[in-house]
Amino acid sequence: MLCQTVFPLLLFGLFIAIPLLVPDRFPQWWDRWWRYVVPLSTVLGGLVMWLPQQGKRLSWSGRWEFRDPAQGDPAQEPATGVDGPARPPHTRLRVLGYVMMLAGVALTTVPTLVLQRPDITPDWVEPNGFLIGVTGLFSVLYGGKTLKLARTRQARELLSRPIRRDAWLGSLLWVAAWLCCLVGLTLTLGGLSVMMEPLDLAWWQMFLTLWTMVLGGFVFTQGRKTFLRARRHRSRFVPDHRHLKAGSYVLYLRSFREDEQQTALHEVPLPGMGGGAITGFLVSGASAEEHLAEILRPVGPLVAVGAPGERLPHVGAVRMYLPHEGWQEPVRELMRKSRLTALTLGTSEGTMWELAEAFQLLPPHRLVLFIPALKKAEYQRIRAAAPRLPECPRWLDTQHRTVIQGVIHFAADWTPAIAPVVDDYGNVKSNLFTAMMPALLPAFTAIEEYEKETGVLYG
Hints:
- The protein is α/β, with parallel strands linked by helices.
- It has a domain at about 245-459.
- It has helices at about 1-20, 25-35, 35-65, 90-110, 110-115, 130-150, 170-195, 205-235, 260, 275-280, 290-295, 330-335, 350-360, 375-385, 430-455, and strands spanning about 160, 235-240, 250-255, 300-305, 320, 340-345, 365-370, 405-410, 415-420.
- It comes from Streptomyces rhizosphaericus.
């Protein structure tokens, strides 16, 4: 609630109240800081868009924290993961999160300090005060993410181990990605502040400044991609699918050809250019599969069978690897033991087989289908083999750059219901996580009611 309404209103109220509360000082402030109004408005506008999304994520996780019906005690920890109840939060991550937030708060006070007491600040601080404040803001945001990770990094982490011996390279890439993002932020906002200077710039200076901003956006985007690659180097895998406790995970089935699209970084406009100026620096750096893993996390950790021979696994679902021959029986066992099975529709032979088996092995409450950017002819082909699917939706279109366009869930009598993830223009509503929330709400409600009635977590 705070992230969705209170914080954006406070930011807006503070922005309006400054000239009203200090009318005698406002002319001096404006004369000195007017060139920073556009960058500051960009950051505040981004926060107003970002904070409601975070509020929705927190409310979703808090509402749908599925528990073991057999325990009966709501005070118990969620019964997910291999070893049952969750472990205590990671103390080191909590300490790191608090340190980052305190350091960030200290850095955000630098612009105010420069404004109030320029005589006590070093010479290099005054021209860079705004950038130092923005750096502090990002430190606060990442500190909050670290605290969230400390709270949720529990036994949901399946019994797994690093898939690569060079997992340490992921840490180095993480540092490089952070530096790229910081450099990109400095170039873009620095160029923007130069263009707002009350000076007559020559045409070549304006041209150079503009391309500096574009370069900053490119460097920032590369930093986001490096973050994703760093996570891939640190990915983990389940050594044996038989180690998975029944009812402790969500099984994710899809065609291996979907991996490259569903695990790619969401592209955004260059920061500092048009709409990207507002959202570019605060947009999620997660892939579509990471969004899926996060939105399904209240039911259990997302696990998937990895593509044979892949050297650098994708992130999102925790991978496991099956033999090329005889993989069908382990997949059947994984379906039976899963708390929920999510399947992305496709026309490949393996995906069609998995869909048919899911209809035979699973109750309707434990199956959710995702509709990717299929052609209508492809959907009709799938429906001909699986008559339980609903009619082809009119909004299905391969021209839309959306990874998941719709969600199908089933009532107790296998009556299908379809919910779009795209709007009337074919665009994702906000980001993928919040766009899928209303689509998955009925499915989550059905799972909760089914488990309360039956008292079982699978089958």
